[in-house]
Amino acid sequence: MPVTIKDIAKAAGVSHTTVSRALKGNPAISTETTERIQHLAQELGYTPSAVAQSLLTRRTQTIGMVVTTIADPFVAQVVEGVESVAQAASYSVFLTTSHNNPDQEMSVVETLHRRRVDAIIVTSSRVGSLYTSRLEQLQIPIVLINNQEEGEFLYSVAVDDRQGAQLAVEYLIGLGHRAIGYIGASNRPKSNRRRQTGYQTALQQAGIPLNPALVLQPVVNTDFKRGEAGLDLILGGQATAIFCYNDIIAIGLLMACQRHGINVPDQLSIVGFDGIEPAQYVSPPLTTVCQPRLLLGQTAMQMTLDLLNDERVHDSILPCDLIVRSSTAPVPDN
């Protein structure tokens, strides 16, 4: 049977209240008694009950985190950022997945709430605006990372999609490219719209007319297949460069180019978005807009802690950086 406070009290010859206070380091108990009881508790193998503590504090010291899928390379560093701040504050993180399905997202959020987590962090939420109507019932903080739905929601941290996309396209324009395509992702409506806006803004500011034939949003099952389908931009629109919604799409496009004998970057420059680890290991290594994934997670978790401590918080938008690698080059000569 697990060792209890009553067992320690019996062995020490004191009341269980004295033991409880001594284990918490209460100054009302003498230093000598505190050290004796804590040493005795260690000898007996006493482990505090998390359930009992949560009944007293009304906190479980747990955070629920919902990600689209653990197979997404983007997720790993975001989770690492959340956990680094959570562990420093003595919180544990429960991870679950939504598979980019709004119904499943709401279901797992409700499940986490029933598990009595203290707060919930959701990445790429598809139902962010619905949480407001549930706030009174849930009564716990919900923080969204890269929210994907329009409307009023609770608290959020996101990257500046427009700024990142504009940075990428301006770089391609600086290399002399004028026929620049965009491969988007219709299943991430909000960030896709913002990245496409950044793409269009860069073209407009450079005096380059928007060519609708160079904008594609393939309706397929995976991002990799969206990249493969994007090859039509080259074959049909005579693009010399393509900016992709994310790195997985860019890698899919890169693989399709290799199968069709299209040299990257001599015949086509490709830029991705996210800065995932695999992007630097493909051939050629991928030029990409890097999201500060670790900082996204850290910021979201710190925002969560601030909310739990009844502090005022503000939504946060983080800038992106461009990482130039070998998948881009000056526009090829005809």
Please explain how this structure is put together.
Helix content is 45%, strand content 16%. The longest helix is centred in the middle third of the chain and has 17 residues, at 189-205. It has 3 domains: 5-48, lambda repressor-like DNA-binding domains (434 Repressor (Amino-terminal Domain), Orthogonal Bundle); 59-160 and 293-319, Response regulator (Rossmann fold, 3-Layer(aba) Sandwich), CATH 3.40.50; 161-291, Rossmann fold, CATH 3.40.50. Helix 1 (5-12) packs across helix 3 and helix 10 (223-229) packs across helix 12 (247-259). It is α/β, with parallel strands linked by helices and 334 residues long. The model has no long low-confidence stretch (mean pLDDT 89). The strands form 2 sheets. The protein has a 6-stranded parallel beta sheet, with helices on both faces. The protein has a 6-stranded mixed beta sheet with strand order 7-6-8-9-10-12, with helices on both faces. It has helices spanning 5-12, 16-23, 31-44, 50-57, 73-88, 102-114, 131-138, 161-174, 189-205, 223-229, 231-237, 247-259, 293-308, and strands at 62-67, 92-97, 119-123, 142-145, 155-159, 180-183, 215-216, 241-244, 269-274, 287-290, 316-318, 321-323.
Shape: elongated
Mean pLDDT score: 89
- Approximately what portion of the residues adopt beta-strand conformation? 15-25%
The main sheet orders its strands as 2-1-3-4-5-11
So, CATH architecture of the largest domain?
3-Layer(aba) Sandwich
Number of domains: 3
Query: CATH homologous superfamily name of the largest domain?
Result: Response regulator
Low-pLDDT runs: none
CATH structural class of the largest domain: Alpha Beta
